Amino acid sequence: MDWESGECSFDSEGFQKILEFAGSFPVSVEISNDFSITQAYLNGEVFVMPATFASVYDIARYEIIFGDEVNFIGYPSDGTCNTTIDLGSATALGISIGCDYPEVAWEFISLYFTEEYQESLSDALPVSRQAFESLLERAQTTQYEENADGTSTPVLRQKVGFAEEGVLGEIYQISSEQAQQMRELTERIYSESAFDSTLHYMILEEADAYFAGQKSLEETVEIIQSRANIYVNENR
Question: For 57, left (φ over 0), alpha (ψ -120 to 50), or beta?
Fold first, then answer.
């Protein structure tokens, strides 16, 4: 959907395929008391694993989890593999259209775009390409901290583990291959992810009838398209 133009495409072939895929799963499953979702990932019993990146060390983290190189395919969509960026509710900043002092507001927001701040990020990736490259460069070399007795200790960047399995490994630096893969992933960013609770539950409400066999796929997407189109155009 496009909030600027008000156009929606919930009746597209791509969205219909998503509903068909979602409808192929059982309504409920029985899970034993000793079931471990993390162990299911490690045993290769899970179809896909959602992957998020908030650090230049995250590719190394996933390779430790799976014990091998990992292929990040992105969310399937028409004609491309969709890698999305999530701004996060706590870090998305903007200036309201009715702001009395937009220059002052921008002066504040621009502090977040300084190279110093961008390179200090530890739980998010920078939006500055220069800062991103600087972080990648530093991450390829193990950093050391001096101890009181004159010795030095390597700085631990990430400790990798699952709750049930404990610690699987530790990361002190990344390889040049992992750094390059990180660059390629960021270059593949296709769109910004967003969540609208009203639209979300609107879709679920209509999809439930399709999953229950009460409506056809064509009827379902037609209703979703109509409701979503009205909602988006009333609120854009």
Answer: alpha
Cα–Cα distance between 5 and 20 in angstroms, integer?
28
- Which one-letter DSSP state was computed for residue 5? T
Q: Give this prediction's pTM.
A: 0.72
Measure the CA dihedral 172/175/181/185, to 10°: 20
Q: Given this model, what pLDDT does residue 14 score?
A: 86
b/e burial code for range 46-82 (CB count within 10 A of at least 16 → b)? eeeeebebebbbbbbbbbbbeeeebeeeeeeeeeeeb
Give dist(CA 216, CA 206) in Å, integer.
Answer: 11
From 202, 218, 225, 187, select the one nearest 10 (Cα to Cα).
225
Taking Cα atoms as reference points, which of 49, 57, 40 lies closest to residue 75? 49
Query: 98-126 burial string, b = 16+ CB within 10 Å, else e?
Result: eeeeeeeeeeeeeeeeeeeebeebeeebb
pLDDT in tens, 12-27: 888 999 899 889 888 7
Q: How far apart are CA 187 and CA 185, in angstroms?
A: 5
Q: How far is CA 7 from the centre of its chain?
A: 24
Q: Report yes or no: 160 and 55 within 8 Å, Cβ to Cβ.
A: no
